[in-house]
Amino acid sequence: xDSIYDRIGRTYTATRATxxxxxxxxxxxxxxxxxxxxxxxxxxxxxxxDRDVTAVEPSEVMIAQRPRDAAPAVQASAEDLPFEDDAxxxxxxxxxxxxxxxxxxxxxELRRVARERVAVLSWDPxxxxxxxxxxxxxxxxxxxxxxxFPSLAEQAAELQAEVEVxxxxxxxxxxxxxxxxxxxxxYLDPAVRAGISTMSGRDEELAPGIARLERDLRSxxxxxxxxxLLELDELDLGYRLLMASLDA
Length: 248
Fold this sequence. Notes:
By secondary structure, the chain is an alpha/beta fold.
């Protein structure tokens, strides 16, 4: 089963982990569900430890990185979940919708296999340039991603979900794209970039922007431009939790 993470995910767990403050929001969104399917489960981040979880992941590379005590994983895609209708109390998906070949089909599948709740952590593409990294250093980096990303309104409508803002803490433990908004030096680290799908495997292309960022950090120019950020504990960079109640 082909998956982008079979190509870019081999060192994923080096920089990607569960951020407890974000996890708490997701788990609250699951309500009192006891059985949960985690779609696009990757290496197991954000899976609630106190519930009966079944993981779904298309990438063999990612499945191989799951801890021995992680939930059992089924190799399958979001668009064609191998479960009966209403098989679980709840379905969850974390920062994965943009990798699905047919996001609408994936959303429909989440609703089909869940009896009570669906909780999806996603992103609002209107925030494409909210992180300084894009306009100042890599103006073309996420253009294709943002242009192909469904609007937040479309996502919410498809899931029939309510939407909550999920700010990114300054010391976020999960090294996703915007996690280092107050720690710019992290983007200089090839291991960090390897764990971010939009940056992984693109070091040659990104080299000019990386060099500019390195110069600005060394000279203090970045800190002068973004002094206000250094005083913040969290920042809204477009991450959203979409929560659907199916038993209302």
